[in-house]
Please model this.
Amino acid sequence: MNIIRNKMIDLKVLGDGRGNLIPIESGHDINFDIKRVYYLFGMQDGVVRGLHAHKKLKQLLVVTSGSCKVVLDNGLDKQEYVLSSPEKGLLIGPNTWREMSQFSQDCVVMVLASEHYDEGDYIRNYGDFLEYIADKTNG
Ligand code: TYD
Model:
């Protein structure tokens, strides 16, 4: 059902004596065109973000600083990831409920997204998400 499989990927690090650089290019490093970039920072202790799914959107999450926990849920199984390296990216396909928590004070989450912002693409209620998945699965 997911067009891309949720998975952690290793990003290509170009480093030299001056430091590191990671390029992320559509079609080379990720298999969708990037239409939007946003980033999250300044999360308070105990905050949980996400708590939604998308119908079409594909995303790559990169924690460029600090760390956080991400739980991905396809309606059947949940997978937990700890993102704590700017050298890793978490690919998230459509039809995936996500919850982000345990943000370190210095956490910055950069998100590369396949579509412009569209509130109509969100499913923000978990019961609605399970129904949406069940409808898709049943036909
Ligand atoms: P939301 O997606 O709920 O944040 P999170 O999943 O990280 O908790 O977005 C928070 C608010 O920001 C919401 O009012 C929608 C708005 N928003 C935009 O205007 N543009 C965007 O690209 C994004 C991601 C959110």
